[in-house]
Amino acid sequence: MVYDSVGRMKGVMSLALALMLFGCATVSVQTNYDRNIDFGRYRTFGWIGAHDQPKPPPEWVDKLVRTALEQELLKKGYQKANGREPDFSVAYHAAVEEKAVWQLLGPGTLMPGECVRRFTYLEGTLLIEFVDSRSNQAVWRGCASDVVGDRERAQRQIPAAIKQMLERFPPKQ
Question: How many domains is the chain built from?
């Protein structure tokens, strides 16, 4: 452990800073859409499998994403196609990536006894895509990123991120 000039542990202070940084992280959401599409003509949706991803998500993530997406779309008045040709299809991709933050430990200048510490964390990204069934072209995309916690936290984060993305669907043109 590294101590400063008055004997306090620098590691404790830097850990507190890291917890503040990551504890206050909020989901980052972006959306985009084809401005030439009349979204009012969409009534039904279906699914494009998540299995074409390089690394499919765990089964519990797949179920959580599908359930949250269906609930939000049903709340908006869209219906599941249930065997019929849907007006649009839903696809998603999920990924987790390790990120790093560097922090100087000490009074602010690199002097003997000071060091720089690297904190790593996992960032999850969820991309949702709505594809027009007639043209087979993407018409709307939503993307959310956030620091990934444990499974319990993910079970809260994923539905919240989906809800936040779908607040922007259909787009107000």
Answer: 1
- Distance CA(154)–CA(116), nearest Å, equals 30
Token pair listed for 61: 């993530």
Domain range for 75: 26-99+121-166
- AA identity, residue 29: V
What is the rounded distance in angstroms from the CA atom of residue 69 to the CA atom of residue 166? 8
The tens place of each residue's pLDDT in the chain, 173 residues long, gives 333 333 333 433 333 333 333 444 578 999 999 999 999 999 999 998 655 666 778 888 899 999 999 999 999 999 999 989 999 999 999 888 888 888 777 665 656 666 778 888 888 899 999 999 999 999 999 999 998 878 888 899 999 999 999 999 999 87
Rounded Cα distance, 72 and 69, in Å: 5
- CATH code: domain of residue 55: 3.30.160.670
User: Is residue 5, in this structure, part of any structural domain at all?
Assistant: no
Give first-to-last CA distance, the chain, whole Å. 57
Quick check: 129 and 144 in contact, CB under 8 A? no
